Amino acid sequence: MRVELPDGTPLELDDGATGEDAARAIGEGLARAALAVKQNGDIRDLSAPLRDGEQVEIVTQRSGQDALDLLRHDAAHVLATAVVELYPGTKVSIGPPIEGGFYYDFEFPEGVTVSENDLERIEQKMREHIKADEHFEREDVPAAAALQRFRDEDQPYKVELIEDLVRDQGVETVSLYRNGPFTDLCRGPHGPSTKRIKAIKLTSVAGAYWRGDSNRTMLTRIYGTAFFSKEDLAEHLRRLEEARARDHRKLGKELDLFMFSELSPGSPFWKPNGMVIWNELTNLWRAENADRDYREVKTPILYDVELFKQSGHWQVYRENMYFTEVEAQGMGLKPMNCPAHVQIYKSERRSYRDLPVRYSEAGLVHRHEPSGTLHGLLRVRHITQDDAHIFCTEDQIEEEVIRCLDFGFAMYDYFGFEPRLELSTRPDKRIGSEEMWDKAEAALERALVQRGLEYELNPGDGAFYGPKIDLHMTDTIGRSWQLGTVQLDYAMPERFELTYTGADNAEHMPVMIHRALLGSFERFIGILIEHYAGEFPLWLAPLQAVVLPIADRHNDYAREVEHRLRDAGIRAEVDDRSESIKRKIRDAELRKAAYMLVVGDKEAENDSVAVRRHREGDQGAATVHEAIERLRGEIAAREA
To answer: CA-based Rg of the chain, rounded to a whole angstrom?
Structure first.
């Protein structure tokens, strides 16, 4: 057998050699460090036979996310082992690795409730199984034998999973993994043994419906995480604690930005402070679009369902939409703005001289998100996109895509974001011909190369109508967020028979570019709240300055300063409570007021203020005019 190492070096092995054999052939140190083997991107157990002629990479703890995912999958099985041992009669369902950790869902015996108070006990049992160095042993068995085994063990969720595999995929053999006393239905892969897990932490307990179906059993989901070192775990837990302190739902309440109501689930109610941020973002969005020759439009939210049948949303996206009837006519709330913008394009004849046509809209759309997935502003049903659609010729595609990306870079610069790019290609569920997808994917790739941009490939994650370039950022505590997207679409112009008259006086079909840079105002504001921990840059801050009179006799002068600030366009107010100045400063800090202007006898006499900056403290004295000019300059600069 001959395989190839990542650097191109050939490796000769005996026929039937495994990943473990390959690691040992390279070196004993690598054999000791090996966790799994990767062949052509497929991660497999070390004990799995290698495929002749393919590239081989040995996965170790230095292999980044691949190694962490493997470790956390191992930890999920150890969790299930501990739970079944501690709570006999527990029915186990699934336990995958996820971003940041793992979970496992259980149905506990009647009368047994597991809460976060029980996590330490479960953790201790997990550590016993880790210390025991239990090997992960794979066995491939006939599906019928596995079904009988799990029926005998009264594990109905495993039975259902196997029955589905047999019915839907014609599976005849399934794989089981055993570690210690626990055997699980699992496709793998796993590391060699439990001892590779060096640090674990169970983090929370939640409810989760079996298979996400609210009509099915509510299971208990236990979340946890695992790392290769205690130091990495400690850093992760520190970040989690920081994330809890920055949670936009907590800060949104404290700063009085927005609220939610069960009368309209998944739809935020924006309070005056929140609307300040919303309007400042809208003003920025509107000005930047105008500078780049976008023409703003506004379209309805309710349409005849025939529109969505023609656009393809009916066939592909219907389960995420809301429908009603108006005078016996089926109507739907738009989940996206694109079919509406198509109607505006179609409303008049177009010439090649008119192209590109660029429409922008802060467009309200509605998408059905299951109640269990709703999460503050980050996952809502009522979505306002900073949307745009560009209708152009094929020759204009690369230039327009580059313009969209540069627009995104300029917008993110206001917030100090450095985006990463992903090119997402055709998904399984899609419309349009393969030739169309080939052209669209190649055009996006050319634009990225032409602009000299680095990007990662994300196969299968394109929109159902076209490939896309997604823009991601990392916030101040290291979390990754997707923000903007630029999508290329041949399908919708074809479905709606869009045309323009070319220079040859013949009819041609334009290409459509979908573009959103903030993503949605709701989600973007949620991200900003957490990124800044509620301490917004001055231009975004709901309260830019609070005037703090030292004593009641200074209230009149404080109100005069407030009026002058407001006349200058600065969002200001007076704290005229009969409290000590120390208490007023402390409360202003808690409110995250950007500036505190303290006034007393001396300030009233000199037409001045004592300036304090949030978290930075005393900034010295300034005349009211100087303070106003300082704030106005900082606001105009829109510094991050």
So the answer is: 30
